[in-house]
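Per your request, structure below.
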């Protein structure tokens, strides 16, 4: 029992880290994009000329870009 008392903080930390890894492993294949992130990914996949043309129209795209 003294071993558990002596290493209680370490054991709790290790258990929490293992639970964290297990939960992240379960949801590893899930798409975790939210908010405006899909928009950013879409535009990041454009070619350089398109990105420059888009940014020259509005530097704060999409917030002040007329749609």
């Amino acid at each position: 029992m003294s071993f558990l008392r002596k290493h209680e903080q370490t054991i709790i930390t290790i258990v929490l880290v293992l639970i964290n890894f297990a939960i992240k492993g379960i949801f590893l294949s899930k798409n975790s994009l939210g908010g405006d992130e899909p928009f950013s990914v879409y535009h990041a996949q454009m070619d350089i000329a398109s990105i420059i043309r888009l940014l020259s129209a509005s530097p704060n795209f999409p917030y002040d870009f007329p749609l």
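The chain has four helices and no strands.

Regards,
D.
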